[in-house]
Amino acid sequence: MQAKETVFADLVQGRAQQFQVPLYQRTYSWKEKQLRQLWSDILEQAELIEHGEKASTHFLGSVVLAPSPQNEATFPRWLVVDGQQRLTTLSLALAAIRDHIKDAEPDEAERIGEEYLINKRKGGTDRLRLLPTQADRSQFAAHISGPLSEQPADGGGLAAAYAFFRRKLAGASDPAAPRNVFRIEQAITSRLTLVAVTADRGDNVHRIFESLNNTGLKLSQADLLRNYLFMRLPTRGEHVYETHWLPLQGSLSNEELEQLMWLQLVLGGDDRVRRQDLYAVQQQRFDKGEVSEEEIEAYIGELHRRARLFRRLLRPEEEPDTSVRARLRRLDAWQAQVTYPALMLLLDLRERGELDSPDTARAMSYVESFLVRRMICRVPTNNLNRIFQAVPAQLPLDLPVAEGLRQLLSADNRFWPADDELRDKIRTAPFYQFGRWDQRRMVLQRLEESYEHPEPVDFAAAQLTIEHIMPQSPGDEWIRMLDEETADGESPEDLHSRLQHTLGNLTLTAVNSELSNHPFDRKQGLLRGSHLEMNRRVAATDRWGAEEILARADELADRAIALWPAPLRGAGRAERSRDWQLAHQVLAALPHGMWTSYGDLAAFLGSGAQAVGNHLAGTAGVVNAYRVLTSEGKVSDGFRWTAPEEGGDVRSRLIADGIRFTVHGAADPAQRLTAGDLALLVTEDNDQADGEDTAQRPPGGEGEETRAARFFRLLAADDSPETVRAVRALFDHWEELGGWIGYGAGRVTTSAFLMLGEAGAPGRGIWPLTLYPGGGRGGTAEVVFKYLAAREPFTDRALRAEFLGRLNDLDGIDIREGKLELRPNVRLSLLENDRNRELLAGALAWFRDRWESRDTA
User: Fold this and answer.
1) Number of H helices and number of E strands within the chain?
2) Most exposed residue of 184, 234, 703, 819, measured as fewest CB within 10 angstroms of its CB?
3) Strands 506-509 and 465-468: what pairing?
4) 821 in Cβ contact with 711 (< 8 Å)
5) What burial class does residue 649 get, using C-beta atoms within 10 Å of its C-beta: 0-12 exposed, 13-18 middle, 19+ buried?
6) CB 225 within 8 A of CB 273
7) Closest CA to 40 of 160, 177, 170, 172
8) Average pLDDT of the segment spanning 209-222
9) How far apart are CA 601 and CA 681, in angstroms?
10) Strands (E), 58-174
11) Order of strands, edge to edge, in the sheet holding 595-597?
12) Exposed, middle or buried, 699 (CB in 10 Å: 0-12/13-18/19+)?
């Protein structure tokens, strides 16, 4: 292997040769941001040339080359293992210069083409000095060899880059200085330095590629794995690329492809692999022993086959069977991506002939029931990933597939609520305050559909919202009615608070604002005219008090039990015991000054508080076990040190760890971490769930409703007009500061991001707050400390702490420093206060200033 510094001219000039971009490489992906930076560097070098300065060149990056299997002694061919984005961009820039001057100086234009772009005496693809990957080849050839008139109207990234340079060259042309363009050419060809790493046939070029993959656009796990696989296909790469990879790449986005690759591992029985470890895990598997080209081809072929199945999860309308399609649509509406391992397994087994469509639909009904019953019964969702990722590895082999899945999900430690618990929670639990808005709406929709009305509602077209029949803010008439039903010292206000959010008091309607807080007799008329059967039944009653709400809850419970199958009784526990290592991991990650309870830890694990207590009491060496307290913030009576060398007074240890105590001897509840907080401590920051990929600038229009309009509609449905106006004012102020508002891509629910810079470019875009409509509980602003902790300059904890302090100046905000690695949220209603708005404006201006000065600090 040899490494040397070079420039573009020295690399590509001379005898006829070709630089081949392997088939496995991603297509051309530089955007205007990268092009603008390159153009700025080129102009800087051109200016230095004009002033006669020769020393200060610009380092552009590395190029890793390996001998091509098609290499010939008289016509050297090189594989571009790394650096294809740079070489392609420089070639397009030179093509743009050639075309810019060809009318005025045709000889110079021809020289540029022959020196840098083509092999004059070669034909076909050999004529190109740079041969891009197959998907880009025709577009690139059209720009290098012409004619451009044969290009499609949308030429993608290559055409955009070429047009960028033509535009910039036109702007840089100066009739008084006609040689400017040749200084630009000289800057490109001889002032942008490269490190060329040239490998011999025996060198592991992929290892070199991995070590140098730190410039340009970061490669995804799917990119890395694709590159690795095709490097292992020296003779069959072309065939596999055309037969499997191109169709696969065309049917899924890169993000979807990465998810499919992860699912392929999970379907193979790996129930612990994380998506961010996909490449490393798969590489280790292929590096074991001698893996043939046929085996790698078989793996890619399986990806191609399963892509057709995976698309049905993403786009249920592609599923041919009516019953399976209906279930996939409901799970898609539920946003149940967590169930993909189980759903892919079912579709895969059906395609292999081990399952028919009716049994596939029945198995999916168990998955739907598992999610819905847990949501109604308020079971925490934090362990769903582990439950469904384990399905392929744990599915019983001695039962039919559908029954095996039902048995697996029925295990005691899966917490699939039985009929009695479901009925009780429908009667008593505040359904309106748990789960996501779209999930609550889907439950009510399915209950309405169970009446099998002869003229069913088109729910896709109907603009239905969730309505409280007995209003959230009852007038005197409602209170007088409730007063007739109170008992045992309960006030009518207490009774209202207990029943208002239960499922028996909720319905769907398109006239939410008209129903509002009116007395029941006025609501009756509106509900009687509804096309929904559940509303007609409510309207048929004479009054609407506690007795009617509970009676309706019992009726809906009967329907829910029929709709969503119950778990099997006596299924026992799943084969694999609970991963207590996760408990140890999260306790070790407890921030200074924070504690948690046995119940919180149990909810995070999907366990019981007693089991957690028993494990901690009987396991030596668990870091921070003494910081697990009772829900009241007290040291458990049964707590004992598990090792003699620990010992000492527990309260003294807690105080040394920054835990404060109230006058009643309880740990400060403000320092308590909930189950949701614990989950954030051990999960990786995921940009896909945040702003860089989901936040988009609001377009001029998006069908019937823009994302911005959807955000404010959902916000207004749950918050006061004063809060909505305050949020609009916040957005206006943020834009005055130079930021922009990005809106989440959710099809039903949405979010808003206070963005700086550009989304989607690593290290470039950033946001301090994410805003969410309340979905029944009031809108919130999430302070994304966990995300900021990995972004400069806020990797400096002191800066995050200063931002926290500025936020804590607002009345009603008291976020503890222990949450600087988490995502605490505050109520948007706090912005109704004039002083709070001023203080937040100052905090955001400070945030912007810190970010903009990051490169000069």
Assistant:
1) 39, 16
2) 703
3) antiparallel
4) no
5) exposed
6) no
7) 172
8) 57
9) 12
10) 58-67, 77-82, 130-131
11) 628-629, 595-597, 672-673
12) exposed
Residue 624 tokens read as 């921070």
Residues 6+ apart with CB under 8 A from 689: none
Q: Decide if 500 contacts 470 (C-beta within 8 A).
A: yes
- What's the token pair of residue 706? 């823009």
Q: What digits encode the pLDDT tens for the residues 183-211?
A: 999 999 999 988 888 877 655 555 555 55
Distance CA 350, CA 332 (A): 20
Enumerate residues 6+ apart whose C-beta is below 8 A from 492: 479, 480, 482, 483, 486
Q: How many CB atoms lie within 10 A of CB 577?
A: 8
DSSP assignment letter at 577:
P
**Number of residues in the chain:** 857
C-alpha–C-alpha distance, residues 685 and 555, integer Å: 43
How far apart CA 688 and CA 440 sit, in angstroms, is 24
Query: At 207, which amino acid appears?
Result: R
Please check whether residue 556 is in contact with residue 620, taking contact to mean a CB–CB distance below 8 angstroms.
no
**What Cα–Cα distance (Å) separates residue 487 from each residue in 465, 491, 494?**
33, 8, 11
- β-sheet bridge partners, residue 335: none
Residue 289: left (phi > 0), alpha (psi -120 to 50), or beta? left
Q: Which two tokens stand for residue 299?
A: 């793996």
Q: Is it true that the peptide bond before 178 is cis, omega within 30 degrees of 0?
A: no
- Strand-strand pairing, 740-743 and 18-20: unpaired
Q: Which two tokens stand for residue 335?
A: 């946003």
CA dist., res. 238 & res. 393, Å (int): 34
Task: Give me the sign of the Cα torsion angle 265, 269, 274, 279.
Answer: negative
Q: pLDDT of 350-384, one tens digit each?
A: 999 999 999 999 999 999 999 999 999 888 776 88
Instruction: Give the SS3 label for residue 727.
Output: helix
Q: Does the predicted TM-score (pTM) go above 0.70?
A: no
